[in-house]
Design brief:
about 260 residues, alpha+beta, Beta Polymerase, domain 2, about 15% strand, disordered C terminus, GTP_Pyrophosphokinase, NT_sf, GTP pyrophosphokinase family protein, RelA_SpoT
Length: about 260
């Protein structure tokens, strides 16, 4: 079974050129006022990531033994950057305080990205994760069934997991993004390109990227079909709309950002 190394991508690097001085000053003032409380909260989010990541790794190990293949290729984890947190709170018109963060005003402070080989693996992993007794589904957004206008595809889940500390138990939220290798390849390149300061023919480039996303999606479907043919299974392409993660519907969904 291959090791699931934490792959670093440019998306996890802070884009300093895109942050103005006023935002930096605002976030600095926020941390100076509540530095200890903020550090403690980020520690809790980091522990929540460890809890969910371990669950995913256990599932991958089990499926490797049962089905002789790993559905998960690798996993990336991150804690949202301080400036990004302050920026998102400002967009929501909320005060930049630890109390605001503790009220779950932002659901994606802790993030895990799961990269799978095939489209159907995405839904299998999602189902196996959310049916665990201590995982509560808060929200889901299926950008595979309903891609964004720019072509972006991924399955996003907001889950809540209890984390046991020495003197308390805290229910912490983690955003889990699950996508194929091809989807991640497109998203990483698109992320790099959109941060270029001066781009000629931007409209044409946006359309080219969208068309590339369509081509990559078609390739994902063809690869799944080839795998099914090799395995002697139904060679039809998985239709996400016919496999809408039935277990997700058992939970009440919220729309907090």
């Amino acid at each position: 079974m291959p090791d699931m190394l934490e792959k670093k991508t440019p998306e996890h690097l802070e884009i300093i050129n895109d942050i103005d001085v006023e935002e930096l000053a605002s976030s600095a003032q926020f941390f100076l006022g509540q530095a200890i409380q903020y550090q403690q909260l980020m520690m809790m989010y980091d522990c929540a990531i460890k809890e969910v990541r371990t669950k995913l790794e256990v599932l991958n190990t089990e499926m490797s033994l049962r089905y002789q293949r790993n559905p998960i290729e690798y996993i990336n984890c991150r804690i949202k950057k301080p400036v990004s947190i302050v920026r998102k709170l400002q967009r929501k018109g909320l005060p930049a305080t630890v109390e605001t963060l503790e009220s779950n005003a932002i659901n994606d402070i802790a993030g895990i990205r799961v990269i799978c080989a095939f489209i159907d693996d995405i839904y299998s992993i999602a189902n196996m994760l959310i049916r665990q007794d201590d995982i509560t589904l808060i929200d889901k957004k299926d950008y595979i069934k309903n891609p964004k206008a720019n072509g972006y595809r991924s399955l996003h889940l907001i889950v809540e997991v209890p984390v046991f500390f020495s003197d308390q138990t805290r229910n912490m939220r983690v955003e889990v993004q699950i996508r194929t290798i091809a989807m991640d390849f497109w998203a990483s390149l698109e992320h790099q390109l959109k941060y270029k300061k001066q781009v000629d023919n931007e409209t044409e480039i946006v359309e080219e990227l969208r068309q590339c996303a369509e081509t990559i999606a078609a390739t994902d479907e063809r690869m799944l079909k080839i795998r099914n043919q090799i395995n002697g299974k139904d060679s039809g392409t998985l239709q996400p709309e016919s496999d809408p993660i039935p277990l997700l519907e058992k939970f009440s969904l919220s729309t907090n950002g």
